[in-house]
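Entry:
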Amino acid sequence: MPDVEAELQQRVRGLLAELFGDERFAGLPGSVSLREAGLPSTGLVSLLVALEDAFGFEWDDDVEPEVLRSIDSLSRHVLALRS
């Protein structure tokens, strides 16, 4: 399972690079807060929509804020939805 999670983390990083046209998130450790890394709230919304499109799901209205914190937490959430 770790390989699947690592692949998902890379896909999230790829979406960030596509959305923002740079590589500032390429080397970001997965546990670092996206907000602390400089992702604005409007950027988070764009990322969430891109994740829905890429993985074919819709975010629940009651998703825990911690899920949206980092590349790791987003990847774990997507992985859980796919299981």
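The chain has a mean pLDDT of 91.
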